Amino acid sequence: MSLKAVFEARSVAVVGASATPGKIGYTIVENLLGAGFQGRIHPVNPRGGEILGLTAVRDPSEIPGKLDLAVMCIPAPLVPAALEQVARAGAQGAVVISGGFGEVGNAELEEVTVSTARRLGIRLIGPNCQGVNYTPRGLCATWPLLKVPGPIAIISQSGTVGAALGDWAEQEGLGISAFVGLGNKADVSELELMEYFAGDPHTRCIALYLERVRDGHEFRRVAKEVRAEKPVAILRGGRTARGRVAAESHTRSVAGSYAVFKAVAGELGLYLATTVTGLYDLAKFAALSRPPAGRRIFCITSSGGSGILAVDAAEELGLVQAELLPDLAEELRATLPERCVISNPLDLTGDADAARYLTAGRLVAAHQAADVYLMIFGDPVPGASQAARALQELVAPAGGTVVACCLGGGEVERDEVVRLHQAGIPAFPAPERAVAAVAATLDRAPQDGGE
Amino acid sequence: MSLKAVFEARSVAVVGASATPGKIGYTIVENLLGAGFQGRIHPVNPRGGEILGLTAVRDPSEIPGKLDLAVMCIPAPLVPAALEQVARAGAQGAVVISGGFGEVGNAELEEVTVSTARRLGIRLIGPNCQGVNYTPRGLCATWPLLKVPGPIAIISQSGTVGAALGDWAEQEGLGISAFVGLGNKADVSELELMEYFAGDPHTRCIALYLERVRDGHEFRRVAKEVRAEKPVAILRGGRTARGRVAAESHTRSVAGSYAVFKAVAGELGLYLATTVTGLYDLAKFAALSRPPAGRRIFCITSSGGSGILAVDAAEELGLVQAELLPDLAEELRATLPERCVISNPLDLTGDADAARYLTAGRLVAAHQAADVYLMIFGDPVPGASQAARALQELVAPAGGTVVACCLGGGEVERDEVVRLHQAGIPAFPAPERAVAAVAATLDRAPQDGGE
After folding, report:
1. Are the C-beta atoms of B255 and B247 separated by less than 8 Å?
2. Residue B129: its H or E element
């Protein structure tokens, strides 16, 4: 049974819906409404009544028309019977948010739940998960409320880590295509989800947070196939011995060797992060940019200091400063104000406006002197996004990639970061983060299959 | 002459004030007004007229009453004569934002400017700088507009790096006490500013960004004295050979060896950052928290995954997981819901509210089992700040330090981060950043002088 029943659902029941703010059964209904879900929402509550303006049915059998998906926020022992009920209403997908299964030692209840779902032809996400979101349809059956559509599909064994990525993406106007909290992944695993989003037209990059990989061989097979379609950014908790112990008590299962995992990730061309912010940065870069064709970086900045810090980071992470060719230097010197520092980094100085970035960018692009063009907007620069987009158009044909860094620009900057993302240019809040994201994607081409 | 003429000015002239939005001479007047400057603002413009509702004088001689400070945004060659004029009006401080001095090779003009200022008894910040801010008086003679008072004094050789720190601090309700753009530091240097803010009652931590240290011996002497008073967080651009070349072309002077600088920073107990975000995190932690008394960390979390990532970071950065004593484990087990994972990290699970954090925190605190208590709020937790503050009060007497990490909590989280900072608890957006800030301050006690 396809996962379409989950993500393309047209009729969703919230089993355990509540009229009490703060309860999960309230939040889910609220967020489905808030995200503008493109389908019918059916709160299910034995007491009936009205929940957030919707009429609650007492029982799934009262749902009019065919049901596609059930989101469950009821006590764990009630889940198997509820699956029977929603199946009769037509459901082929269930997202079980309820905890109280394998993660607290109730392995038997988890087995019964999964076997019930399988017998009924229901695909089950969770249990003990933070729900799902699919922004193209406004299916925010999770929290917080996220509704900006974007290119990243987040699959996370930690609800919070996934929520953090989505929240940051929403704040920056980048957005996500999907979020799936894996929870105990008793039925649907990250592998099937990766395959699903590899084929999802709204997803350009998959961001994964995992604590354990159940079957290394199978992971390798699937990841390789998926990676041939789309970039995959990944963070694995439990890198250290103590972290692994913590991971095992979180999921009650063996986390596995990080060294082996790292080797496999490297071999498959996955982008490997070691922090939550690093995972976000990698996913952002991978979702918007092609991997750089080489290691040469050229920096155009209004902030001398930020340019220096970018150089430091680039040197430490194995990028190479693009040579400033004498012809280009002469053209820049002839065109830009005298106070600009003609070097790499090219310092346009603090009063640089978008027009000066554009002028400099055109000259630099004409020489195709680099693989990566880092534009640092170190002051409020209205129109930064247009200048970056123009440069991107000029350098893309020769395989160049433009990355932006915006800092110190206050409100203007926050607007421009959103516009940069809308224009398809990844924007980072500090030079080192921009450089680190680029560097982590070098030499990470998939070994088989084209980009 | 004291720097009080600058930071405690009661009467400020903006020389080169403009009625044209976008011009620096407009922005400065706008931001002084926007920050609610507690004194008189005198726009100076040869054409007179009105600027942002203020009457502009044509000449500093027309300023009524005594002038304290002149902020200059006029072409560089006009600065020495303007200094003569503002001195006659009483000014004892000048902030020269104008560029066009030593940084573009006009060493002679810079020398004339400094010697003029010195002869007139004027202390000069800059030239070629991004201005100054002193929030206790609303003196925002810089950009962007920052007006949230807070504990961090930023001294930066890069206007942008300093502005970024201030902007982040404002966004998070942390705030700054001061910002000073050093520019060419032709008269006032970082050393004098460090001494000044060491004695400033509104400043609890000094954050420094530098590209060069003119006199290593003098830096060592001053930093040692200042460090005995207050913590100092520092980032130096030009760590790598290529970065040093870039730094030298930015400031037209020798950057010096990073290895030597690093050794000196270590010896003096300065908190050394290697990224802009790292500098912010260190300054935040140092401004709000006492350095931990030891390496033992205990983590209380609602997010299992974030707890694991915190453990990984702590292990990698030399912290030690505090032992969960059997007595404490038993008390926690007896008190918390069954689904909570009784270990370190202590996983309160996703539905944890502030009350559960408080309950757990009280039990943990009674055993004084750790030096650092990391509270991860991995969901919207209204009241997180109160729970963290309560724990802080319980553990502080025995030298314990509470650090918060908030992620995945949407709007609730943004409010709580502000409240956490108002309550004096540093809050970080990812577990690794919280742990890294703590780790960087270990073994960094000043060698002489008390904390």
Report:
1. yes
2. none
The 10s digit of each residue's pLDDT in B371-407 is: 999 999 998 899 999 999 999 999 999 999 999 999 9
Distances (CA, A) of B381 to A213, B301, B365, B407: 30, 11, 20, 10
Query: Residue B184's closest CA among B268, B122, B100?
Result: B100
Q: Which amino acid is at B65?
A: G
Quick one: closest CA in B to A251, which residue?
A: B304
Task: pLDDT band for A451, please (50, 70, 90 cuts).
Answer: very low
Mean pLDDT calculated for residue range A267-279: 96
Q: Are A243 and B312 an interchain contact pair (Cβ–Cβ within 8 Å)?
A: yes
The confidence score (pLDDT) of residue B251 equals 65
8-state DSSP, A343: S
pTM for this structure? 0.96
For residue B426, the distance in angstroms to the closest alpha carbon of chain A comes to: 18
Q: Tell me which chain B residues have a C-beta less than 8 angstroms from the C-beta of A243.
A: 308-309, 311-312, 315
* Tokens encoding A260: 């082996």
Note the ipTM here. 0.95
**What whole-number distance in Å separates Cα of residue B298 and Cα of residue B307?**
10
Reported residue count of chain B is: 451
Sorted by sequence, the CB contacts under 8 Å of residue A115 that are 6+ apart come out as: none
| Closest-CA residue to A200 (of A223, A174, A230, A159) | A230
- Say yes or no for a CB contact (<8 Å) between B341 and A430: no
User: Which among B96, B143, B160 is the top mutation candidate for probing chain A, defined by the most A β-carbons within 10 Å of its own β-carbon?
Assistant: B160
pLDDT in the model for residue B170? 97
